[in-house]
22693_t:CDS:1 (Cetraspora pellucida), 134 residues
Amino acid sequence: MDSVSKEFKILYQKAHEYFDNFQYTFNKDMTTLAKDFLVKNCDLSDNNIEQFIADKVWQLKLSKYLDASNFSKFKKSQSSLKSLKNFITESLKIYVEYLISIHNQEKPSYSEDVLVKIKKLDQLTLHLNIPSAS
């Protein structure tokens, strides 16, 4: 194996680890957010979820990811900001439904009931232009 192939393999592994870590952290953060929502709300309506998210909660949950961006520039794009907020709102709904299913002892599948549904939300963020902080 030549040195370029070795470097590519190392780069590929590091990128894969980074995205695995991002996905794990995002899922953990969304689970925590869903638990917080359920503790504070007995009305699980979409409107209550949207109000819960509207309190800048979604920005706090994404702050560690948004720190790598020029967030002040990003905020100027209302459509991008709305898309990201919608992604967090819809993700939270999925996690809340999943936690309720667990509580009701329905034995949901994390893969099918959360991960597959979150993956379908990619369309909300696919065309976002997030400016780099550097």
The CA atoms of residues 86 and 124 lie 7 Å apart. Residues 27-125 form one domain.
